[in-house]
Amino acid sequence: MRQNIIFCTQIVFPWMGYLDRASYSLQCNTSNYVTLTNKAFGQSNNVLLTLVHMLEYLVVRHPQPVLVMPKWFREVYNAFDLNTALNGWVCIAPTNGKFAISRTFDAASIYMLGQRELGEKFTRVVMTQILMRPHFHIYKYLQIRRSMYPNGYNAIHLRQLCREWYSNLHSCTNVYNGDELCSMQTSYLNRTLTRVEFSFGRLPLLIMHDANTKRELTNRIKRDFNAIVLNDADVYVDMLTMIHAKYFIGNPASTLSQNVMRVREEILSDSYARSNMHSCTRIAL
User: Fold this and answer.
1) Which of 106, 226, 249, 252 is buried deepest, with most CB atoms within 10 A?
2) Who's near 186: CB < 8 A, 6+ residues apart?
3) pTM as predicted
4) If you average pLDDT over every residue of the chain, what do you get?
5) What is the dihedral of CA 210, 270, 266, 208, to 10 degrees?
6) Please, what is the Cα angle at 66 between 65 and 68, to 5 degrees?
């Protein structure tokens, strides 16, 4: 049963509002096939964000260019039902065809392009459209993980790189002390979790982190807060775990934390009260 997870049931056109499939007439320019360079810019979360930014480029052009998906988008296809998420509003070439490419975009440039055309609302809604459609193997892993904490859990995302970017991203969080947040100081976590406990009761704290996070940091939080370090799943399972947390402590210098917060803002009416973050108006990374 999937009643514990919110899944998208309609196609969303975020630049025009929420519409039925039949309300939108998609026109594809079959003489204009576009793609991206053969190498992705970054890891899984960057791949996902590059895809969303590429979709933003496509949908503001009429008729739409047809996107030939590079092979490195396959990991997103393998994790989520993109066929349903994109059906009816994006022109995607069949995966088994050969096409004369009119233009090849640099993956890094598209990643950096973000939100120039349609803004934060588009990114939030499309990210939700994709992440709320996990394939069964992702969904099953998530349900097994969530079943271990039947009363819910809080989640924290750690990232090694933070101070280098915090000055550009302080508007994405309600925490004013960048050093306190970037190092996840015990005093900061104590204040935060005490307030969370008053609202939700005492819940397990799950730690998710990037591969470069210093072990001393995870060990300190594990020791001081009896936290549980999760490193047994792929990044998309971790993202969904954070999305469904009672309270989410994110790192505003991480685009992964930002993407988690984007989806939480779409599916939770009280997302601001349940995180130290809110989605940024524009990605600066």
Assistant:
1) 252
2) 220, 224
3) 0.86
4) 83
5) 10
6) 135
